[in-house]
Each structure stands twice: as structure tokens, then as C-alpha cells.
């Protein structure tokens, strides 16, 4: 393993696939036309953008006209929430979401609260999964929008969005799902889910950074994201990121082609990792439901140690991973997701998120299982919290 | 993000451990915030002859604990009380802005351990 980097942070980003880059390259170099122009160079760029739209639509079982390109998941979420809220404010001002959404959902909702909208944050169960009944109970006469993520970015839990969408439809409420972590990991079919809006981001499934898409079901009342030119059918002005869009199209095509094999491979590795960590290390817990989780996600909390220290020591061993500790986020509070599932602050500080990707092997898991217990033990020997446990028992 | 010196003190922390029957002991910080430092001092004739620590916290928390124990050793109580968080951070070739609170914790740990020593001395003298 000397000198090798083992990358276990695929929920943060994935490496760009060579096939994807190959399709993008001409649009970064000789095919530089603006898709809004009428001459050949522009027409060629426009054709490439529309082929990508077709690929995204096919991957999601949507219609081509329902796919809008954006700068990524954050923009898609912002557009969905603000666009629907502004377009429907004559109907009501109430929005429902969950306590474990990504900041790309929570922060625009805070912004909307500042403008007079009211938001209900429905808590999740200790297994990290939302109870649809609780969403139903939160609905008011003036509820205009429900936003529930399809899979959580930290603990990987898969949410019952289909059931929640059914409840929303019965009440005539618009439903959005942030599927940024789900696309490329589990099957995502907008018609089967029954959602009105769905956000995705290319760099989570081996595509380029800075490009994403928003699915907007035909007939959904929504304001444009930006005003300017006529791009994206007058809903999202601005010259298209042609190469990025081409990359997104290719990446989603590849990601959905062999999804079941990919997921089966990662699930096997994930289970080996979870079993190994739980058996080799004490005072550890798996965060999120054991089975209703993304095939590539394992999230642990190690008591008496802090996550950033763990990440630094793993980095010294050539392992890249993630933590929900406050120190890695620059705030004083650890991950809101870990707190939402009931972890005490000090336990949440000691979390480790491992997210697997297609290049990871059994050998990588074996190596992690070899070095992790040593690191945890070393940090615990340094911890005054562990010292008191050793002396007093727990 | 971290200087080489911070990483060195994190990976090879000096003076980790406890001192049996330490003359001054103090624990500062809060597990809720993710940082706790426990400092042990051995003091002879007003001079800190040994210092050890245990820390629950991030890389900067461990590194500041390590350098702080190095800085106090051999100093008189009065000199050790003059050590500021700025001095601790400078000794590590700087800390990122969002980690400066760790150096504050190190300063507090030194002061609190000395206070513990002084209060023990006071009660000894009273008895």
C-alpha cells in the first residue's frame, strides 16, 4: 500500500471517468461554439447539449423537455425550493422538509423563512429514516411544497420518497427530492417515485464538477432560476456549460448502464467493512439503518475520540475519508444529521464516513480494517474521556 | 491548512500521558464542543520539572497540548503563567483562524493546572 492513496470519500466527489472526459474534450477545444448561435459550430454545440438532455431524461425515465441543466446540486435545490415557493405564494406559505436535509436545502429554506414563508422540519427516527406518517401530520391547508431527500449524504439512509410523494399528491402539494447522493447508486425513476422535481449533480457519479440538472415535471408551477437570455426554455438564463453538460450526459448514461452490478459489488464491500469495524473495535456504533442505506455508505461513531484527528491519522496512512465532526466543518457543532438521529455531541464529533467507489477493492477494505483499530486505539490512549472510562468503567 | 510543525506535533505528540501524584492537574474544555485538554504538572521549588497531557480533540488541539507541555517545562510558575495563546500558536508556526481556539484552550490548561497547584499549596500551608 506504500505511496498509494485509497479513496473512500465518493460522497464528496468521484473521479472523472476517462470515457466522460473523452466526450467532453472536443467541447473544450475545437467545438467551442455557443449553442445559441445559428452557424455550424453553434449548431454542433446545441446538438451535444440536446443529446445530453436525452441521456439524462432516459436515465431518470423523464421526458426530454423536463430536464434543465444547472451548475450542480446546490443550484438545482435552490431553484426547486425558491422557484416553487415564489410561484405558489398565492396558494400558501408553508413548506415541509426533514431535519437531515443537505445544507443546499436547509439554507435556502432559512432564506425563505426570512421572506415570510413557514417551514416545518420533521424529525427522523433514530435509524435515520423519516416516517411518512409524520410528514402527513405536518401538512396544513397552506402547505405548498414538501422536500425530502432520496438518500442522505452522511449516513446514506434511503428515504421513503415514493410513499411521501403519494401523500403529497393526494393533497395536491408539490414534491421535490434532492437525489444528489442517490443517482448512480440506486435506481432513480421519476415516474415511479411520483415526484415533481428532482435534483442531481454530475460529479457524484464520475462526471465533472460544476454541472447538474433539475427535473421539473411538466405543468409544475415554478419561477425561472435566472433572467437573461432564452436558454433552457427561458427558465435558466446564461450560456450553457457545454462541455460540462456533455460530461453529465455521458456520466449518467454510464452510471445507469451497469447499476445493479456496481451496487452489488459495493454493497458486498460495505458489508465486509461494517462487520469488520463492529467486530474489531469496541465503543463504536453504525449510524443509520443497517440495510436501508446506499450500497456504498458506512458511517460510524467512535466514542472518546474526535473525527478530524481520525481523518488526519488515516491520511498519514494513505486513506482519504470524511467526518461529521465540527472541526472539519469549521463550526462548533458537529453534523446536524448525526445530532438529528439522537447522537450526543461528543459521540457525533467522533464520526467517520466511508463512501466507496468502483475502484475500491477487498484489499482496500482489508487495509482499512488493519489500520483503523490501531489508530482508534492510539487516539483513545490520548483521550481523557477514555481514561475515565478505563478507570471507572462504563 | 496545518503547518508542518502542527502536523509533526500531532503525529508525534510530546509528553502524552499522566503524572502520578501530579502537583497540579486541570481539565479544560467541553466534550460537547469537541475539545478537552487535561494537563498534569510536576513542580519542584517553583519550577515546572515535568508536564504531561491527555487530549480529546482535533489535530490542532493535540498539537497545541503537545507544544504547551514543551513550553512550560523548565519554566518557573510565574514564567509559565505569562505564556499566551498567541505564543502557543506562534510556536507551532501558526494555526488556521478557525483553530485559534485550541491555542486558547492550551493557555487555559496551563493556567488552570498552575492554579490547582497554588490552591493545593495554599491548603497545605493553611493546614
TrEMBL record, chain A:
Its domain of life reads Bacteria
Q: What SUPFAM superfamilies does the annotation carry?
A: PLP-dependent transferases (SSF53383)
Residues involved in [2Fe-2S] cluster binding: 327
Residue numbers binding pyridoxal 5'-phosphate: 73-74, 153, 181, 201-203, 239
What are the record keywords, sorted?
2Fe-2S, Cytoplasm, Iron, Iron-sulfur, Metal-binding, Pyridoxal phosphate, Transferase
Q: Which GO terms describe its biological process?
A: [2Fe-2S] cluster assembly; amino acid metabolic process
Could you tell me which pathway this protein works in? Cofactor biosynthesis; iron-sulfur cluster biosynthesis
Q: Which Pfam families match?
A: Aminotran_5
Domain Aminotransferase class V: where? 6-368
Task: Give me the reactions it catalyses.
Answer: (sulfur carrier)-H + L-cysteine = (sulfur carrier)-SH + L-alanine
Query: Would you identify the family this protein belongs to, as annotated?
Result: Belongs to the class-V pyridoxal-phosphate-dependent aminotransferase family. NifS/IscS subfamily.
User: Per its UniProt record, what PANTHER family does this chain match?
Assistant: CYSTEINE DESULFURASE (PTHR11601:SF34), CYSTEINE DESULFURYLASE FAMILY MEMBER (PTHR11601)
Role summary: Master enzyme that delivers sulfur to a number of partners involved in Fe-S cluster assembly, tRNA modification or cofactor biosynthesis. Catalyzes the removal of elemental sulfur atoms from cysteine to produce alanine. Functions as a sulfur delivery protein for Fe-S cluster synthesis onto IscU, an Fe-S scaffold assembly protein, as well as other S acceptor proteins.
Name of this chain's protein: Cysteine desulfurase IscS
Q: Which organism is it from?
A: Caldicellulosiruptor owensensis (strain ATCC 700167 / DSM 13100 / OL)
- Lineage, broadest ranks: Bacteria, Bacillati, Bacillota, Bacillota incertae sedis, Caldicellulosiruptorales
Q: What gene codes for this chain?
A: iscS
From TrEMBL, chain B:
Q: Which Pfam families match?
A: NifU_N
Q: Which GO terms describe its biological process?
A: iron-sulfur cluster assembly
One GO MF term attached to the UniProt entry:
iron-sulfur cluster binding
Q: Which organism is it from?
A: Caldicellulosiruptor owensensis (strain ATCC 700167 / DSM 13100 / OL)
The entry's protein name is: FeS cluster assembly scaffold protein NifU
Which InterPro entries has this protein been placed in?
NIF_FeS_clus_asmbl_NifU-like, NIF_FeS_clus_asmbl_NifU_N
NIF system FeS cluster assembly NifU N-terminal domain span: 1-122
> Which residues, if any, are the signal sequence?
none
Q: What superkingdom does the record give?
A: Bacteria
